[in-house]
Specification:
The structure holds 2 protein chains of 2 kinds. By secondary structure, chain A is an all-alpha fold. Chain A has helices at residues 8-14, 23-34, 37-40, 63-66, 69-77, 79-82, 95-108, 116-119, 131-140, 174-182, 200-211, 216-220, 229-242, 284-293, 311-322, 326-330, 349-357, 360-363, 380-383, 386-394, 414-427, 445-458, 483-486, 489-497, 499-502, 515-526, 532-538; strands at 148-150, 156-158, 365-366, 369-370. In chain A, the strands form 2 sheets. Chain A has a two-stranded antiparallel ribbon with strand order 1-2. Chain A has a two-stranded antiparallel sheet with strand order 3-4. Classes of the chains: A mainly alpha, B alpha+beta.
């Protein structure tokens, strides 16, 4: 019988979506996409669609521009020594193998931007003159929304969309970094990183700031002689053998098809076809768990690399694998619950190009495409007012003070901000209501006073929101000091009536507020138009 | 009756095999030193799904009478039910510590790991640490707690997320606070979650979630609150109205 902790594997036979009741199954599928299992192993859903990895591993075609052979060597030997959260697994390579693979990767690299070096030879230099200014460029760009850095206490602070930056100065070449922070798309067109439009000064400061994040220990023991032709040739053979190209683009090497066994029906694998070793109990879940936990315990020659999954992550991956059964593949279509449609939505025109350039979709979802870190913008045009949106796009101020991950400053021009704002306000409207249906001018001062009363006593909104910065302290929800200049009256009204209808999944509780109370609260909130900057200037 | 008596005898014998009995003596390493106390370093009070291995090892330390770590002391770990602790015996390292992995048993509830060592006079010294196995409903409650409750009900801030606990006038109760939460019936808890603080004559800072969460969600949350409560929650069974 299947042990209770894998029970969600049963749910996964019909459910290709992520039901709220099966966190373990959902985590397992997410890990297989995030850690690139599906780049080597084919995993097909019953519809015959192959699962895809959640991000594109960086191409290695121009790697010599980016880093040194020493770094590649040290990274290959132990990716987690460079970054504990690295998704690249440990291939447990010998010193010689790591040397040869790194030699080949350097040798196959081609220049990616021929005109680049002379242009920015002087201007692109790292500027280490002003650490404080540099830190504020890093802060304003909210690099921490996507990148983590280890703090003094050894804790990782920041997001996991981009690589950890604690030791980035030991990795990248200064010229490459200077170019990358200016426009990452030139090096890696599919990158999730936005084009920040930094000034020369800002780019120099940021480059200097990042370049200073070094770790002398990481490369201390790496002593490599110049590579020989023999090493390079051997490296190429090893790259083919280890399947590096299943994840990374490499010059001169084809992406291998079906590099590892297909796992579409691994949950139905008969025990007679499994070779058990050591003390692994003779059951399929135990076999899969042992294989995921420590592939090399099944043979030193095995190509599968070593991952750093925690025990609960191993259980999650095994649950997702056990859901891949022959029974699931042959179930009648009517029983299947499909994965949500992956949209290839592309916004149009000038605004569309800007949104792609600034990578809005890395964090925000619109019409079913995009990330989950930031609010879904599908109906944002009904929510916000134009003057606020324009100024927010130019300089995003803090809406949720308790969050580390926030919207960065993209340094857009006035014209760009207006183009974006007009597009959002015109196109991203909710069908649920007309955003001009409620006129803020119709509110009386009685409405506002009653709204204040309700806000502070009956609904105690101040436990999560700040209206009066002197007395209110709650900071789970957005600060509301200038909400009257930010949101439309009709959005506030309908949002209060049913928050989940407008923002699915929001934790703001639906308090079943009656129409009269909602109107009074809306009147009170629409009167909050203070700009914190202006208030500070007055004092 | 006879076969049953035999099974009981075998079971008793098997249970006595575990720790500190003569039978196991031969297979266990001989102590090089003796301590006076066993303390927990980390890994107590972990939560995991039934039958799952815990993410963090249980690390204990043997100290002498002055509180200094003792290397080479023999320790022996036992756990109830069908939970497994590996390695179950060994000597403390140079730092006086011993680390063991724990896999929880197949029934939801608490599993107590008893770490035993002997002092110079061969007296057994014990440390008891609880680990909590969550059933399906309790695990769902844990996920819901993460999304909806913990920002106010957990006073600990993390590097990623600042707690809102101290910003509230009426301090939210931590879910481990059994001394208070165990006094509320399931109906009371359900009522305060669904209808907000005022339902129990408490602060409106606790908002109503009855229109946001399903009934099953609220039941899962209560199951989770009961599972993590310290001291452990004991259902009162049938309760008659008082005069």
């Amino acid at each position: 019988m299947l042990p209770a902790r894998y029970f969600a594997a049963g749910c996964g036979q019909c459910h290709q979506d992520s039901p709220a009741g099966t966190p373990q199954l959902n985590l397992g599928r997410l890990l297989m996409a995030r850690y690139g299992c599906v780049n080597c192993h084919t995993l097909k859903t019953p519809e015959g669609v192959a699962m895809k990895a959640s991000d594109e591993p960086p191409p290695l075609t121009h790697i010599a521009e980016k880093t040194t052979q020493q770094w590649i060597y040290a990274w290959l030997k132990n990716p987690q020594a460079y970054s504990a959260a690295a998704t690249m697994p440990d291939f447990q390579l010998s010193d010689a193998a790591a040397r040869d693979i790194s030699a080949y990767l350097m040798a196959q690299s081609t220049p990616y931007l021929p005109a680049y070096a002379p242009q920015t030879a002087g201007a692109g230099a790292a500027d280490a003159s002003n650490v404080q200014d540099a830190a504020s460029v890093y802060g304003e760009a909210f690099c921490a929304s996507c990148h983590a850095v280890q703090n003094a206490a050894g804790l990782m602070v920041g997001g996991d969309i981009g690589p950890e930056l604690t030791r980035v100065g030991s990795k990248v070449k200064p010229e490459w970094l200077a170019q990358w922070v200016r426009n990452p798309k030139l090096y890696f067109p599919q990158t999730a990183m936005p084009h920040y439009r930094l000034t020369e000064k800002q780019a120099g400061l940021l480059t200097g700031f990042l370049q200073a994040k070094t770790d002398s220990d990481f490369l201390a023991k790496v002593n490599l002689e110049p590579a020989t032709q023999e090493q390079i040739a051997n490296g190429k053979a090893l790259v083919n053998e280890r399947g590096c190209a299943a994840c990374h683009a490499i010059n001169g090497i084809q992406r291998p098809d079906n590099f590892a066994p297909e796992l579409s029906a691994v949950g139905s694998k008969p025990l007679s076809k499994i070779v058990f070793v050591g003390t692994v109990p003779h059951t399929l879940p135990d076999y899969l768990a042992a294989k995921v936990r420590q592939p090399h315990s099944f043979g030193e020659k095995l190509k599968m690399p070593q991952y750093t999954f925690t025990p609960s992550q191993v259980d999650a991956v095994v649950t997702a694998l056990l859901a891949q059964t022959e029974r699931a593949q042959t179930l009648p279509v009517t029983l299947r619950v499909r994965a949500p449609h992956v949209s290839d939505y592309k916004p149009a025109g000038r605004a569309g190009r800007l949104m792609e350039d600034m990578q809005c979709f890395s964090c925000h979802a619109i019409n079913g495409r995009g990330g989950v870190m930031a609010p879904d913008l599908t109906a944002e045009g009904s929510a916000v007012q134009r003057p606020w949106l324009v100024s927010f796009l130019k300089n995003p101020n803090t809406l949720r003070p308790a969050l580390i991950r926030r919207m960065p400053k993209f340094n857009v021009t006035d014209a760009e901000a207006e183009t974006l704002a007009d597009y959002i306000l015109t196109v991203y409207q909710t069908p649920a209501f007309d955003s001009e249906s409620l006129d803020a001018a119709s509110f009386s001062s009685e409405d506002r006073d009653r709204g204040r009363q309700l806000f502070y006593s009956k609904y105690a909104c101040q436990s999560c929101h700040i209206v009066d910065p002197q007395n209110d302290k709650g900071y789970i929800g957005p600060t509301l000091t200038q909400v009257g200049a930010r949101l439309t009256a009709s959005w506030i009204f309908h949002y209060l009536k049913n928050p989940q209808a407008l923002r699915p999944g929001t934790i703001e509780p639906n308090q079943n507020i009656g129409d009269d109370d909602t109107r009074a609260l809306t009147a009170f909130l629409m009167a909050q138009k203070k700009s914190p900057a202006r208030e500070a200037a007055k004092k | 009756m006879k076969p049953r008596g035999f099974i009981v005898a075998v079971l008793l014998w098997a249970m006595s095999m575990g720790c500190g009995r003569r039978n196991a003596e031969s297979s266990r390493p001989q102590p090089k030193a003796f301590g006076a106390a066993v303390v927990e370093v980390s890994g107590g009070q972990q939560l995991a799904i039934v039958g799952a291995p815990l993410d963090q090892p249980l690390v204990i330390q043997v100290n002498d009478a002055q509180g200094a770590p003792v290397a080479g002391a023999a320790v022996c770990l036992q756990v109830n039910g069908d939970a497994i602790v590996t390695p179950a015996a060994g000597l403390t390292g140079p730092d006086g510590q011993f680390s063991a992995g724990v896999a929880l048993g197949s029934v939801a509830g608490r599993y107590q790991v008893v770490t035993a060592t002997r002092d110079k006079s061969a007296k057994v010294i014990e440390l008891r640490t609880d680990q909590i196995a969550l059933g399906y409903q309790q695990d769902l409650g844990r996920q819901l707690n993460q999304s909806y409750c913990s920002r106010c009900h957990d006073p600990e801030s993390t590097a990623e997320r600042v707690s809102n606990h101290d910003n509230l006038k009426a301090k939210a109760h931590t879910f481990t606070e059994g001394s208070f939460l165990n006094t509320l019936s399931d109906a009371d808890l359900s009522s305060i979650i669904a209808h907000g603080g005022p339902a129990l004559n408490k602060s409106a800072e606790m908002p109503p979630y009855g229109a946001t969460l399903h009934k099953a969600d609220i039941e899962a949350l209560i199951a989770y609150i009961r599972a993590v409560s310290d001291p452990p929650y004991r259902s009162k069974g049938l309760v008659y109205a008082k005069n």
